[in-house]
């Protein structure tokens, strides 16, 4: 079994302003460090049917998130989640990365997985238990 890192370049387009912990520099620094480990498998996000989001999120929440991405500058999704124009593609790739990682574990190709995205907090904080149950069942 292998360990995979699932990520995409769009993560560095998620801009949150100075001082926020979700920074492209943070993802780039972690990526640079991890690339030194030659035993890791690097993967890209899956494309996915956006209806899968309804299994984990209320349709009103999905609509609110889709409408929250500004054309310029930043916007607050809630009290601590900032989104920018680049966050839209980064969010889609982050979801695709989580799906790719889960599928790798379910297919028994991976024993451990990491999804490397600056905005993973948006997903993790709102993701439902079924995702984690899927990972545990796969192991």
Give a brief description.
The chain is an alpha/beta fold and 139 residues long. 40% of the residues lie in helices and 14% in strands.
Word description of this protein:
The chain has five helices and five strands; from the N terminus they run βαβαββαβαα. The chain has a three-stranded parallel sheet with strand order 2-1-5, sandwiched between helices. A two-stranded antiparallel ribbon has the order 3-4. It starts with a strand and ends with a helix. It is an alpha/beta fold.
What attributes does this structure have?
single chain, 139 residues, alpha/beta, 3-stranded parallel beta sheet, two-stranded antiparallel ribbon, 5 strands, 14% strand
Mean pLDDT, all residues: 76
Helix-strand pattern: EHEHEEHEHH
What is the helical fraction, as a range of percent?
Answer: 40-55%
Largest sheet, spatial ordering of strands: 2-1-5
**Count of alpha/pi helices:** 5
What would the principal axes of the Cα set say about the shape? flat
Q: Gap between N and C termini, in Å?
A: 11 Å
Oligomer state of the chains in this structure: single chain
């Amino acid at each position: 079994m292998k360990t995979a890192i699932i990520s995409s370049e769009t993560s560095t387009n998620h801009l949150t302003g100075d001082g926020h912990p979700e920074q492209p520099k943070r993802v780039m620094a972690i990526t640079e460090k991890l690339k030194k480990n030659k035993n890791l498998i690097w993967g890209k996000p899956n494309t996915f049917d956006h209806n899968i989001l309804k299994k984990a999120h209320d349709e009103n929440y999905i609509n609110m998130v889709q409408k929250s991405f500004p054309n310029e500058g930043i916007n607050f999704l809630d009290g601590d989640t900032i989104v920018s124009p680049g966050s839209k593609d980064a969010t889609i790739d982050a979801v695709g990365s989580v799906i790719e990682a889960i599928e790798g574990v379910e297919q028994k190709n991976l024993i451990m997985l990491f999804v490397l995205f600056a905005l993973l907090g948006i997903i993790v904080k709102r993701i439902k238990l079924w995702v984690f149950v899927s990972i545990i069942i796969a192991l």
